[in-house]
Design a protein that fits this description.
Number of domains of chain A: 2
Order of helices and strands of chain A: HHEEEHHEHHEEHHHHHHHHHH
Strand order of the largest sheet of chain A: 3-2-1-6-5-4
Distance between the termini of chain A: 70 Å
CATH class of the largest domain in chain A: Alpha Beta
Oligomer: homodimer
Structural class of chain A: alpha+beta
Chain lengths: 386, 386
Amino acid sequence: MGINYKKELEDTAKSMILVHEPDTLIKMILRTIVQKVKITHAGILLYNKEKNSYILTISRGPVGLKVPAGFARIGVDNPLIRFFKNQKMKTLFKNGLVYEEAKSLLDKGVEPELKETLEQTLRQIEMFEAVACVPSYFMKELIGIFLLGKKQDETKFDKEEADFFSALASDVAMAIRNAQLFKELVSELDKKRQLFIHTTIALAAAIDAKDHYTHGHTSRVTSLSLRIAEKLFQKEKKQNDENFLEHLHIAALLHDIGKIGIPELILNKGSQLTDDETKIMQEHPAVGANILAPISELGDSLLGVKYHHEKYDGSGYPEGLKKNQIPFIASIIGVADAFDAMTTDRPYKKHISKAEAVDEIKNSSGKQFDPAICAALIELYHEGRL
Amino acid sequence: MGINYKKELEDTAKSMILVHEPDTLIKMILRTIVQKVKITHAGILLYNKEKNSYILTISRGPVGLKVPAGFARIGVDNPLIRFFKNQKMKTLFKNGLVYEEAKSLLDKGVEPELKETLEQTLRQIEMFEAVACVPSYFMKELIGIFLLGKKQDETKFDKEEADFFSALASDVAMAIRNAQLFKELVSELDKKRQLFIHTTIALAAAIDAKDHYTHGHTSRVTSLSLRIAEKLFQKEKKQNDENFLEHLHIAALLHDIGKIGIPELILNKGSQLTDDETKIMQEHPAVGANILAPISELGDSLLGVKYHHEKYDGSGYPEGLKKNQIPFIASIIGVADAFDAMTTDRPYKKHISKAEAVDEIKNSSGKQFDPAICAALIELYHEGRL
C-alpha cells in the first residue's frame, strides 16, 4: 500500500493548469512521477495530430534507460496503440495494464483473438522496459499513454495505484489539452501579428516606390527609429516598453502613407517645388492621419504619422506644435526622417556624409529637434550603429 | 460529517480546466455547489482588475436571495475584503470564516483591534445572508471570496467542510485565472485581426482614391464577393469554410493594390487608352501579386489578387488561364469586379442598370465567367441582394 505520493502528485497535477507550454508541462509531470513514486523512469506517448502518431517523452530516474532507436515516435498501428484503442481492451483494461497481471492472464490462457493482441502489446511494453501502462483519454480519444518503469524498492504496482494513475492520467490529459489550446492560440496570434506587419511593410514599400527619390526610405527610417527608441530606454534605464515600440514600429512604417494622396507630378518633380506645390507636399502627414483615422486599433501610432514633421521650436507642420506638445513617438520619427533625408540624394540636393548629418542634428538640438533624441542618435553614431 | 458531495465537486472542479469562458465557469461551479451541498445560495466575489473592485455573482437555490442593492460590486476597502487581505486574519481564518464560530469568538471577547474588524465583517456577511465565507488566493493575491448560504437541512458547516471548500477555492481560483488568460488571448487575437482588416481597408481605400473613376469600388467588390461565396456555400450545402472566406475577404480588399504601380496619367485618363497604355494597365494584377509576394501569411489571398482578370474561356490576363486552372477565389472576385465595372460610370462608358448587368453576366456564363459563380450572382439578384 505504498500510495503515499498521492497528495503530492495531485497537487502537481492541479498546478499544471497554469503551465501553458505543453513540453514543459509533460516534463514536469514525468519528473514528479519519477521522484515521488520512486521509479526507474516514466514516459508518455503523446498523440501528435499533424504527424498522426504518438511521440515519446521519457524522464529518466537514477537508473537510466536506453530507448530503443526508432521508438521516439510510434504510428497509430503500433500494437500498444491499437490495444488501448480496441473497444474490448478498453473495457478490460480501462485503468491501465500492469505487465505482470497481463502476463499471468496470458499464461492462464485467453481467447485466441485477445491472445495475439496481448502478446504483441506485451512485447512492445518490454521494449519500453515499462511495468505498467496507463492510457489517457480525452473525449473518448486516446491522447496519450503513460509508461511506468520499475519501482526502485522492487515492490509491485497494486490495484489502488493503477486506479490512482488512471485518474491522474485523465487530469494530465486535460491539462495537456489546455496547454495545447493555449499554444495554438498564441501561435495564431503571432501569425496575425506577422501578417499585419508584413502587409504594412509591403504596402509602405509600394507607396515608397511611387516617390522615385526615396527608395528604401521607409524601411531605413523604421529601423533607425527603433534603434533610437531602444537607446533612449537603455539610457533612462526604463523598462523596455513593448507597447511603445510596437506603436513606433507601425507609425514609422506608415509615416509617409499620406504621400499616396500627393500627385505624382509633385512627388517626382526633378526641380525645386513652387510654394503651392510645397503646400500640397506638406499635407502628407495630415492626409496620412486621415487615411488611418478609422483604424481605432492603431492607437498612438496615428500620432507618429500625423506629427512627424513638427519641430521642437514650433516651426513644423501641420499644427506648429512645440516641445512637449509634440508626441514623443512623432519626434523620434522626425529625427530619423531628417537624418535619412540628409544622407540620401534628393532632387537638387546631394547627400551629405553621416558624420556631417550627425553634426547638423547636433547643431539643431533644442532648436528643430528634441535634445534627448539628438543625444541618442549621436550615441548610436559613436557606437557605429548608424 | 455531511461531506458526501466531495467527489462530485472535485470532478466538476477538474473539468473546469477546459471551460475558457470565465463567466460560464463561475456560474457552473456555483450551480454545482448549490445543488450538491444543498444550500440556499452560493456566491463569489471576484476581483476585477480594471475596476479595482470585487464583482458579485450569485447562484440562487430554491429559496432565493435578494442581494442588497449596491452590493453587486464592492470596493477593495470593504470590510470583508480588508478582512481577508489582513495578514493576521489570513493566518487565523485561512480556511475561511464560519459565521457562527466567528460570532461566538466575538462573544467570548477578543482584542480590540480584532473586534472592530470582525464586527464589521460579520455585518457585511449578514447582508449577503451567508453562513460561511471562503477566500480564494492566487499567488498570494485575494482573487475571490466564496459566499455560502444556509444548508437546506439546517445542519452547520463543520471544520472538514471548511477545509474542503478552502482547497476547492484554490482550484477554482486557478481555473478562473486560466480562463481569464484564455479570454485575454482571444480578445488580443481579435484585436490584431481587426487591426489587420481595418488597415487593409484603409490602405485599399486610399489606393482606390487614386483612381478617380472607381470611388468605393474596392469595398463594393469585397462585399459582393463575400455574398457570392456565401451563396455558393449555401447552394452546395458545404460547411461554411471560414478560411476560404477570410482569404477571399483579404484578396478582394487587395485585388487592385497593383494600381499603385500604374502612372496616374494612365489611371485617370479621361479618354480611351492606347494599346500601350492598356498593356500597362493590365499589369496591375501581376504588380499587385509582386507587392504582396513577400507576405507568406497571405496564403491563397495572393491567388485572388493575381488572377482576378483571368477569364473562364482563357481570354484573360496575366496568364490566359482557363476554367479550373483559374483559382476559384480569383473567379469570384472577377465576376464581382465585372459587375461593379458595368454598374458604375467609367471614362467614356456610362453605367448600365443592375438588371442589364445581370443579363450580360448571364450571357457570358460559361464563356467569360464560371457558370457556378454566375448562377450564384443571378440568385442574389432575384433575392434583391445585389
